[in-house]
Input
Amino acid sequence: MSQSVLYDAPGPRARRRSQIISIVSALLIAAGLAWLIFTLAAPRVTAGGSTQTGLFDPSRWDIFLDLATWRAIWRGVLATLQMAAVAAVLAMIIGVLFSFGRTARSAWVRVPTSVLLEFFRGMPVLLMMLFVLLVFSTGSYWAGVTALAVYNGALIGEILRAGIRSLPRGQAEAGLAIGLTPVATRFRIEFPQAFRQMLPIIIAQMVVLLKDTALAYIVGYSELLRIVVNNLSNFYGNRYFFSLFFVVLLVYLVINLALSWIARFVARRTGSRSVTGIADGGDESKS
Amino acid sequence: MDAVLEGLPLLIDGFLRTLSLLGIAGLGAFVIGSIVAAMRISPIASLRILATVYTELVRNTPLTLVLFGCAFVLPYLDVRLSFFTLAAIGLTVYTSPFVAEAIRSGVNGVPIGQAEAARSIGLGFGQTLGTVVLPQAIRMVIPPLINVFIALTKNTSVAGAFFVVELFARSRQIINDRGDEVLAILLAVSAFYLIVTVPLGLIASAIEKRVAVLR
Output
C-alpha cells in the first residue's frame, strides 16, 4: 500500500472529515443522478401538444429484444473496427517511414519530411478527410482511412523518433562498429528497441485512432454511430433515438476502455519502469 | 484562386468563430481540468475516485459522440441553447480530462524527493503543493497543456458538422458554391488552422527545450 508522500496517513480526525466529505459528495452525486433519471423518465408534452412517454418507458427500449437490432449494432461495430484496423496498419507503415525521414542523415530528406509532418500534424483530421474525399474523390471509407492513417502516421513517426533519440548513443555506435551499414543499424539495432519502448504510447495512439473513426460519420461513412443512431431510428421511429444513442455510447466506452486497459497492461509488462510520481498515491492509480 | 479571394470574408468570419470556440472552450476546460486534477491528487478518497471515473469516461468517448449528444440529445431533453453554446459546452467537457491529465503528469514529473523534503520540514498538503511542487510543475505542465490546446483547435472543426458555422462549415459552404476550385479552398482553410497550431507547437517545443536545460 503506497501512501502518497503529499500527506500523512490520516489520523482519526482527518479520517472522520474525509468520511464526511465522502458521504456528502456521494449524496450529491446520487441526488444529481436521481434528478437526471427522474427528468429523463418523466413524460413530456411536446410543442404540438401530444404527450411523449418518458425515456425509460419500455416502448422506447423494446427494439433491443429484436435480434435484428443487435445484428445492426454488430455491423456497425465491425464497420468501425475495420476502418480502425486498416488505418492502424497503414499508420504504422507511414509512421515508420516518417521516423526514418526525420532522422535521415541528408538534410534533403530531413527538412521536407519535417515540413510535411508539421503540415499533417497541424491540420484537423476532419479537414483531411474532406480533402481526400473531394480532391481524390474516393468513397467516404477510403477518405476516412487515408486521413486517419496519414494523421496518426505523422504522430507515430514523432513517437518513434523520440524513441530512437532516447536510446543510448552506444547502441548505434556498436552497430556501426561491428560493420553494419547505417541503414541496417537503424533497422536491426535501434528500431526494435525504440518500438518496444514506445509500444504503450503507440497503443494509446491507437485508442485515439479508434475514437477518431467516429469522425468518418461526418463525411458520410456508415460506421457505428450512423448505422445505429441514424439508420435504426429512421427505420423504427424517432422515439428510439435516445436509447440507441445511449447504446452506441456504451459500446464505444467498452471497446476503448478495453484497449486502454491493454495499453496499461503492456506498459507494465514491457517494464519501461515508470517511476511512481508524486501524485500517484492512494488506491486507484497503481499503474 | 479567385474562389478563395471571393470567399475570404466568409472564411475570416468562420475563423473568428473558430477562435471564439477555442477561447471559450479552452478557458472552460482549463478551469474544470484544474479542479479535476486537484481532486485526483487530493487526500480525500471519494474525490479521487470521482475524478478518475470522470477522466476515464470522458477520455474514452469519441468527440463526435460528445458533440452529437450536445447537438441532438440535449435539445431533446428541453435544454434550449444555441448550437454555438452547446458545441462550446461539448468541447469544454471533452477537453477537460486532457487538461487534468496534463497537469497531473506535470506534478508527477517533479522529483519525488522535492515533496519528501517539503514534508519532512513539516509543510502540510497545501503548503507542499503550493510552495514546492506546483511552482516546479508549472514549467513542465505548459508544453503538454499547449499540446492540449492545439488538439482543441483542431477539434473545433468537428463542431462545424453540428450546425456551428465556423471555419470548417464555411469551407463546406464555399465548396458547395465553387466546386471547381476545391483544392485551393481546402489549402486556404488548412492555412487558417496552421496559423494557430504551428506557432503554438513551436512555442511548446521552445519551452520544452528551456525546461530541459534547467533540469
